[in-house]
Design brief:
Elements: H1 2-7, E1 14-18, H2 23-34, E2 38-43, H3 46-58, E3 62-67, H4 73-87, E4 92-95, H5 110-138, E5 142-147, H6 160-180, E6 185-192, H7 206-214, H8 228-235, E7 247-250
Parallel strand pairs: 1-2, 1-4, 2-3, 4-5, 5-6, 6-7
Length: 259
């Protein structure tokens, strides 16, 4: 038991969770705090963070909220500066901001396309560049966990721009893993399948939901807490010291189905 505790012990670590006010990344943030990390939840709406901060406080964890718009580079630069000033350092970065759309491909205008690409991909690019530069100069083991999507691995109807953006996140993660391994920076992608709050399952379409369940061997949607095991694995220097450039798929078997 002592071995297992030490393997996933994040005491003394500082984790920045961008998108941490949402359901999935919020649950991941709570798990990181439960493992001992100080957690900074980053989002646009302070009210969305209240429940998550209370849950962390209830388990005796340490956390605080930082309001930022990930479409603004200056907000992310200020975020890093504030975290280092207030918490002393950053060890773990989770990039989980996301925005979905069911607009058919031929009907997406350039403004909507640019917005989707900016939130789902460019925000990850900005955060990785800003925090990656900090990690390299810090010379300590660090972990970047980018939130991918099943839509980034295979074509899923009705999610054209979101899929393209997430595919870019998957590719960026592998490139950074290759380039930054020598700096002891691990870059991995967490790939959720269909979860109740996932972008692809928010259409309110019962027929579509049934199609997803028929294509999922476990015959159900995922639950947010089912992402926490992989989160702690990738966040821990001890548990994932030789894991980088990986895509950890959590999809109930969805990607294993063909016909």
């Amino acid at each position: 038991m002592d071995f297992l505790n030490s393997l996933y012990n994040l005491k003394g670590q500082v984790a920045v969770v961008i998108g941490g006010t949402g359901n999935l990344c919020g649950c991941m943030g709570i798990a990181l705090a439960q493992a001992g990390a100080e957690v900074i939840l980053v989002g646009r709406n302070p009210e969305s963070a209240i429940e998550k901060l209370a849950a962390i406080d209830e388990i005796g964890g340490k956390s605080w909220f930082y309001q930022a718009d990930v479409s603004k580079r200056s907000d992310l630069e200020d975020l890093l500066s504030e975290v280092v000033s207030r918490s002393g350092k950053v060890d773990i970065l989770v990039n989980g901001a996301g925005l979905g759309s069911g607009t058919p491909f031929l009907e997406i205008d350039e403004e909507e396309y640019a917005r989707l690409m900016d939130i789902n991909f460019h925000s990850v690019f900005r955060a990785c560049q800003i925090f990656g530069d900090y990690f390299i100069k810090r010379h300590e083991p660090s972990s970047i966990i980018n939130m991918g999507s099943m839509a980034g691995k295979m074509p899923i109807s009705g999610l054209f721009t979101y899929s393209a953006a997430k595919a870019a996140v998957h590719n960026l993660s592998k490139n950074l893993a290759r380039e930054w391994a020598e700096h002891d920076i691990r870059v991995n992608t967490l790939v959720p399948g269909f979860f109740p709050s996932a972008q692809a399952s928010q259409k309110g379409d019962e027929t579509r939901a049934l199609e997803i369940l028929r294509h999922t061997p476990m015959s159900r949607f995922g639950m947010a807490n089912e992402l926490t095991g992989a989160t702690l694995l990738l966040a821990s220097n001890a548990a994932s010291s030789f894991i980088t450039g990986s895509e950890i798929v959590i999809d109930g078997g969805f990607s294993a189905m063909t016909i």
